[in-house]
Amino acid sequence: MLEFKTFMRLLLLLWVLLVVEGRFLDSSGELITVKGQEFPIKPRPDGRIVGGQRINITEAPYQISLQTRSMHICGGSIISKEWILTAAHCTYGRMASELKVRLGSANTSDGGVLIDVVELVQHEKFNIRNVDYDYSLIKLSQEIELDDTKEIVELPKLKEDFIDGTMCLVTGWGHTKNKTDSEEVLRQTKVPIFNQKECSRRYGLFGGVTERMLCAGYAEGGKDACQGDSGGPLVTEDGVLIGVVSWGYGCARPNFPGIYSRVSYVRDWITEHAKV
């Protein structure tokens, strides 16, 4: 029989592993995860947008695929000729030398251009436990040659707010049906900004949402970003990047909209590091 101290150490180790992987179980055993892949250390390259449709890269030319070992792990957005904005949980525990960025392609495995990463700037306040301050900047080894497949997305003003119901576009290579089927083509879906107070109430059992977080989706579910879309863009219909795909309860579930990192909240931090 295990001694009490040994048992407690094993219990503590299990808890740490759950926290490090960004995974928590509710009372029914449902998995609560960030919208990455095996957060944060062991990415899976599968998954798609739930309720979305296939698009060409020219329809979202700011979208990139963050990769390691030739596998897609997260999305991201082009914010300058040298810098990409993604989620901190996508780069957590990684070195720049492990990563590459594919730009200018709707396919994660070919097309466009593949560029090395030379620097990672993860937000210093990133909280691995509640996924707060989920922002990371990626510096590329060379400047992007802009064209209709590779464009810089417009950033919001500092602390700029957007009204509830504003329709937004979310793109990525995440799960299409809240399960682990896989595909390499880019997808897009439309979701409205969800009321912040109501969203925080619905996520109350999970600690609610902070002012760095923005909620988007339908109360009835059906459309959402999902695992594999992490770090990708949430863009208004007039082209402003307002959110970074972060976390949520499942994907496209009723009553639980997706959670995004609010870009306007760290507009000054982005300027400080990326000079944009």
Automatic annotation (TrEMBL):
Entry keywords, A to Z: Disulfide bond, Hydrolase, Protease, Secreted, Serine protease, Signal, Zymogen
One Pfam assignment:
Trypsin
Cite the CDD domains for this sequence: Tryp_SPc
| Compartments, as annotated in UniProt | Secreted
Q: Does the keyword Glycoprotein apply?
A: no
Q: What GO biological process, any one, is recorded here?
A: proteolysis
Q: Where is the signal peptide?
A: 1-22
Q: Of which family is this protein a member?
A: Belongs to the peptidase S1 family.
Protein name stated in the entry: Trypsin-1-like
What organism is this sequence from?
Answer: Musca domestica (House fly)
Encoded by which gene? 101895586
